[in-house]
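In line with agreed milestones, work has continued on tokenised descriptions of protein folds. One protein thus recorded appears below exactly as we store it:

>
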Amino acid sequence: MGERGWDGEVKKDRMESLGTGKESEENNLLQLLSDACLVVDALEPSVREDLVKNFCSRELTSYRQIFEGAELAKLDKTERRYAWINRRLRSNEEIWKIFPPSWHVTYLLCIQFCKLTRSQLLEILENLKEKPDVGTLLLALQRTLEFEEELAEKFGGGTRDREMGTDIEDIDRGENNSQTVLDIRKKYEKRLAAHQGSRNEKDGHKDLSVPGAGFNFHGIISSCFEPHLTVYVELEEKTLMENLEKLVQEETWDIEEGSQTNILSSSMQVFLIIRRSLKRCSALTKNQTLFNLFKVQFNFVSFNCDWFV
């Protein structure tokens, strides 16, 4: 809004004092700013949009400077990024109540934070001179996924993956699998139909700038890790080969008495290891990395198919 006054009194510099501690110097400042927001609401929407955008950008100025510095611009410092924004949200929760709820300031601030974080992490990953340490990479990815889930729960849409995960666990137990899969399929077909019906009703006036209206926090940051997870697939392949070598050494090569098949117990163990490997990977990503791991395991089984049966 530049230097244009609000109600002839509250100016841009008043807004910039939020979160600095200066607001305590003037007891009625928060009330003045709250009233000013009502004035802004009466103006054209672009005024409010510019104000919120500038506010969010200013709030992230220190974050940008801190985490672009040599000390914290590292992959192993990723968790501290999310600690920073969480502290910021908690410490300013009461102050930011001056904004009308319909402005969704916290929501829009988190979106800008995620986009900035993704950009910075992507630059860190692309500038690595060597392959990233697998442990550090996976820990950074895991913390990122957890943060995205926190945001999804906070602003809506955070239960979808949890419900799907529960269904996968039901299948993995192996008890009456055919009926379990059928029940899950019916449930999601019904849920999808309901979702499509609701979407068709709202398509005429959907606003993507507000919570629950289509924005998805899942993957907004974590997707930048995907091209760099080759080292993880290589680790899983190495682990599979090591387990196979161990099982071969321990295998008695005897068929159990009374067994009507000639399947070795060690081959069953290998398939169990493969299933667990895919489950671990799917908890991190269901994109290209999961497919790459599947191809590695498929080639492994194909190459050793004479041994498995």
Notes: Residues 152 and 269 are 37 Å apart (CA to CA). The two ends are 73 Å apart (CA to CA). Confidence is low (pLDDT under 50) at residues 1-12, 160-181, 198-208.
